[in-house]
Amino acid sequence: MAFRSVALPGIGTKYELETDNGDTLAIVYLQNGRIQLYSSPSSGETCAVELTNPESRRLGSVLSGAIMEAEDEGVEIAFSALADLRISVHTYPVSRTIEGMSIAKLAIRSRTGASVIAVSRGAKHMINPHPEFVFETGDTVVVIGEADQLKTFERTILEK
Predict the structure, then answer these.
(1) CA dihedral 93, 94, 97, 103 (to 10 degrees)
(2) What residues form DSSP beta bridges with 68?
(3) φ, ψ for residue 135 (rounded to 5)?
(4) What is the pLDDT along the chain (160 residues), one digit of tens a residue?
(5) What gap in Å lies between CA 43 and CA 113, rounded to an integer?
(6) Cα separation of 13 and 78, whole Å?
(7) Domain ranges, ordered by start, for the chain
(8) Count of CB atoms within 10 A of residue 55's CB?
(9) What is the CATH number of domain 69-158?
(10) pTM flag (> 0.85)
(11) How is 64-98 classified by DSSP, letter by letter?
(12) What count of other Cβ atoms lies within 10 Å of the Cβ of residue 112?
C-alpha cells in the first residue's frame, strides 16, 4: 500500500492511495472548498465523484468505522482498539413536551442513562450545557449514550 500527497498549484492538493491489489484512490481538495474522489481500478475505467464538505465528512466517518444513519442526524462510533465499545450520538428537535423544562428537572441522565452534550438555539451553540439549562421550542439537542439509552431518552423524555 502506497500513500502520497501532491500539491497542485492553483488547484489544490491531491492525496493518492495505491492498494495492494493495484487499485488507486485519489482525493483532491480543491481551493474552492470542493472535494473530488477518483477511483482507478487496475482492471477498469476511472470513475470520478465530486463531494460537498458534509458529504466527504460523512464518507470519512463511515470509512473510519462510524456508522451514519441516513434518515436522521445520528452516528454510532465503534473504536478499533475497543471493538465492544459503541457510542451513539444523536440530534433531536426539542418538542413542546419539554419546552420550559431544565435538564435537571427532566433528570435526563438518571432516568435514561444518556447525557445532553450540546444544544443549538438558532445560530448559538452551547457545549456541555449546565443542569439548569432550560429548553425552548426550536432548540436542537445533542445526546450521547448507548443505543438503548437513546431509545429510552426518546420514549421517556421526548414522547411524554
Answers:
(1) 140
(2) 75
(3) -75, 145
(4) 788 888 999 998 998 888 888 888 888 988 888 889 898 887 778 888 888 777 777 777 667 665 545 445 676 776 666 667 778 889 999 988 899 999 999 999 999 999 999 999 988 999 999 999 999 989 999 999 988 999 999 999 988 6
(5) 51
(6) 30
(7) 2-64, 69-158
(8) 13
(9) 3.30.70.1450
(10) no
(11) TT-EEETTTTEEEEEETTEEEEEEEEEEEEPPTTT
(12) 21
Amino acid symbol at 37: L
Among positive and negative, which fits the CA dihedral 40, 20, 34, 8?
A: negative
Q: All 3 cell numbers of residue 26?
A: 485519489
Grid cell, residue 9, equals 498549484
C-alpha cell at 3: 500513500
Cβ atoms of 116 and 129 closer than 8 Å: yes
- Give me the count of residues in the chain: 160
